[in-house]
Design a protein that fits this description.
Number of helices of chain B: 5
CATH topology of the largest domain in chain A: Aspartate Aminotransferase, domain 1
Structural class of chain A: alpha/beta
Number of strands of chain B: 4
Strand content of chain A: 15-25%
Structural class of chain B: alpha/beta
Radius of gyration of chain A: 19 Å
Largest sheet of chain A: 5 strands, mixed
Distance between the termini of chain B: 31 Å
Number of helices of chain A: 9
Number of strands of chain A: 8
Order of helices and strands of chain B: HHEHEHEHE
Helix content of chain B: 25-40%
Order of helices and strands of chain A: HEHEEHHHEHEHEEHEH
CATH superfamily of the largest domain in chain A: Aspartate Aminotransferase, domain 1
Number of domains of chain A: 2
Strand order of the largest sheet of chain A: 4-5-8-7-6
Number of domains of chain B: 2
Largest interface: A-B, 88 and 75 residues
Radius of gyration of chain B: 20 Å
Oligomer: heterodimer
Strand order of the largest sheet of chain B: 3-2-4
Helix content of chain A: 40-55%
Shape of chain A: globular
Chain lengths: ~230, ~140
């Protein structure tokens, strides 16, 4: 969960006549608008927060008007991977509540991140909304909120296996950004394709778990994590 | 007139109203669109290129991101794949090492085959970013946390 300084990198990239491409899926445009920070192209998996309901796949590319936009439109009409009208409608329908959902994702994620920090079996908690992060100033400058994605490191692989099989309300499933809370094991799911040396360097090991915090009641989610982690 | 994100999410692009007054955007399930006459168009011809339902979605997302153009794809990976088509053999791209595994797979399995090199570095380290540009570097790819 590293944070890069989009505006500073855009300044450097401009000196080198390079484009800045930003995948803004995790924060959504509700909490971060990379084009206003100097990015040239914004990319989304709309399957996540924009759609928000784990019921439709989609992707987006957003740019200012100009040469890059025209080239992308040409690639788009030529290669033909546009979203169907029915799926477009599902995303439009889901997106109407983006603001409400993002606020609740964040509220729940903050509560869960703080609770995780008090747990004996939890060694580290990674959430960009935590007040004691070293890059807090950058985060507050760049984003208007923190979203609902948390990673945390537990004491052993045994604990990982225990949590993944014991969660009842929280679903052990890949993806993120939907109304339902999901838990994933990045090492063998989202980041399986990343070579081991890079993964290890990032701390994506067999003791790391990732939560996509949904919009349920935070106390219910914490109770489920508590019984899964501590056998209560 | 510009609106806040909450309003854009609900109302979409308010500059165009449905001719029948529909409040929810209709699903235009039409692959092709007829033309009034030779050289005349409704603005639509074929849904691979443009579709009114998809256009409404694209305009909404463009407004939310404060961009002017938006394209909607069948998946996030389809979107990244299209962006990678901007580059040519010999091009070099600097990317965050904290990237989704699927994106990494695209670079490693497809982009590499097309002669585009993607170098993953710690982009939260600005000095590292500055030192990593090459003459053939064409873009920096970041992922929001």
């Amino acid at each position: 969960m590293k944070v890069s300084d989009i505006a500073a990198i855009a300044d450097i990239a401009r000196e080198h006549h390079c484009l800045v491409l930003v995948d803004n899926t995790f924060l959504s445009p509700y909490f971060q608008k990379p084009l206003t920070l100097g990015a040239d192209v914004v990319i989304h998996s709309g399957t996540k927060y924009l759609g928000g309901h784990n019921d439709v796949l989609s992707g987006f590319v957003i740019t200012p008007a100009g040469d890059i936009a025209e080239r992308l439109k040409y690639i788009y009409k030529t290669t033909g991977s546009g979203l169907s009208p029915m799926d477009s409608w599902l995303v439009l329908r889901g997106m109407k509540t983006l603001a409400l959902r993002m606020e609740q994702h964040q509220k729940n994620a903050l509560a869960i991140a703080h609770w995780l920090k008090t747990q004996k079996k939890v060694q580290e908690v990674f959430y960009i909304g935590l007040e004691d992060r070293k890059d807090r100033e950058l985060i507050l400058r760049q984003c208007t909120g923190f979203g609902g994605m948390i990673s945390f490191r537990v004491d052993s692989f045994e604990t990982v296996k225990q949590v993944l099989s014991a969660v009842k309300l929280i679903r052990f499933a890949e993806s993120l950004g939907g109304v339902e809370t999901l838990i994933t094991f990045p090492m063998s799911q989202t980041h399986a394709e990343v070579p081991e040396e890079i993964r290890e360097g990032l701390g994506i090991t067999d003791t790391l778990l990732r939560l996509s915090v949904g919009i349920e009641n935070a106390d219910d989610l914490i109770a489920d994590l508590d019984q899964a982690l501590n056998g209560k | 007139m510009s609106f806040a994100s909450e309003t854009i999410c609900v109302q979409g692009d308010t500059s165009e109203r449905n001719p029948f007054g529909a409040v929810s955007v209709p699903i235009y399930a039409s692959a092709t669109f007829e033309h009034p006459a030779l050289g005349e168009s409704t603005g639509y011809a074929y849904s691979r290129v443009q579709n009114p339902t998809r256009d409404a979605l694209q305009r909404t997302v463009a407004l939310l991101e404060e961009g002017e153009e938006c394209l909607a794809f069948a998946s996030g990976m389809a979107a990244i794949t299209a962006v990678m088509e901007l580059f040519s053999p010999g091009d070099h791209i600097l990317a965050t090492d904290d990237v989704y595994g699927g994106t990494f797979r695209l670079w490693n399995a497809v982009s590499k085959k097309h002669g585009v090199t993607v170098e993953c570095i710690d982009t939260s380290d600005l000095e590292k970013v500055k030192a990593s540009f090459r003459p053939e570097t064409k873009a920096v790819f970041l992922e929001s946390p």
